[in-house]
Write a structure and sequence with these properties.
Blueprint lengths: L1 H21 L7 E4 L2 H11 L4 E4 L14 H8 L3 E4 L4 H13 L4 E4 L19 H4 L14 H18 L4 H26 L6 E4 L5 H6 L3 E4 L9 H13 L5 E3 L8 H8 L3 E3 L7 H13 L2
Parallel strand pairs: 1-2, 1-3, 3-4, 5-6, 5-7, 7-8
Length: 295
């Protein structure tokens, strides 16, 4: 009898496990962003209400990145796509979404930001040799500015209030905390860089134009449209860096920067690796600021 009861109990348990396995608990709805700093900001606002996916693969070069089919299929399942608005790979993605997922809401997080033009080609100080025909191009690196990050966060917050009204109080509380943190960060960076107004720094890829604008700094880019340059052009840019008394060179490992070592040896200044795409965005902004003031 005991054996029969045990057999029945095992059968019931097996059916329960089978039912649970075939009917998993529903996963959270998905929101998608283009880059990791957006993910950082959006997760601060939505908390545990959504899973936030990032379109740009970790360590990928945003200048040459092409999302694969899996990325696009996952994006089509999202409730909202929060794009930066001016990254090259976003245009191709948005065109495909219009065909395959026309109902997907796409939000331009750069809406309301004072966009820079003509700062993204590199070596702009050399006149028209590199930047000819590209002075009209928008610099997409809006997230390398705390001021701009506040605008990005506000655009995300307003979107979520309209989309998910039942969690309005939750989002508002989180948004206020985030804005307080961003305001504190801005004050810290302003105080840190207050005595460095007019200071120049060198960077391989010109990704810090908005950062430089916020704090009255001068960015000297060493590349030309994402490529290495001739020896003559490089010498002139090194001379320019010396003229401006550059004290630091920033570089990103995802960009081809084999000439960086030559530049560093010529200038004899610290070489600092940065990652503006880092999820730990606050730490990255501080790293850049403190490297500029370091003696």
């Amino acid at each position: 009898m005991k054996l029969a009861k045990l057999s029945i109990l095992c059968g019931v348990m097996a059916m329960v496990f089978l039912f649970v396995g075939c009917n998993p608990s529903p996963s959270k709805p998905v929101l998608t962003v283009s880059i990791m700093p957006q993910k950082f900001l959006l997760e601060k606002i939505v908390g545990d209400k959504y899973d936030v996916h990032c379109l740009l693969a970790k360590g990928a070069n945003p200048e040459s990145y092409e999302p694969n089919m899996n990325h696009l299929m996952n994006l089509e399942k999202s409730r909202i796509f929060f794009c930066i608005g001016n990254l090259g790979f976003e245009l191709a993605v948005k065109n495909k979404l219009r065909l395959n997922a026309p109902e997907l809401q796409i939000v331009n997080c750069s809406e309301g930001i004072d966009l820079l033009k003509g700062t993204h080609s590199g070596m702009l100080h050399l006149g028209q040799e590199c930047a000819h025909g590209h002075n009209h191009e928008i610099d997409p690196h809006v997230w390398t500015s705390v001021v701009n990050a506040m605008v990005i966060a506000e655009n995300m917050y307003k979107t979520m209030l309209e989309y998910d009204t039942k969690n309005k109080k939750f989002y508002t509380k989180n948004y206020k905390i985030l804005m307080s943190e961003l305001e504190s960060l801005q004050k810290e960076l302003e105080q840190t860089l207050a005595t460095r107004t007019g200071t120049a720094f060198a960077v391989w890829h010109p990704s810090l134009s908005y950062f430089a604008r916020d704090y009255g700094l001068t960015q000297i880019a060493m590349e030309c449209e994402g490529k290495e340059v001739s020896a003559g052009m490089l010498k002139r840019e090194i001379d320019l860096a010396k003229e401006h008394n550059v004290k630091v060179i920033f570089y990103q490992k995802e960009f081809d920067n084999r000439q960086v070592q030559v530049i560093q040896e010529e200038l004899d200044v610290p070489l600092v690796e940065i990652n503006p795409m880092n999820y730990e965005w606050v730490d990255e902004m501080k790293t850049i600021a403190y490297a500029i003031v370091a003696e």
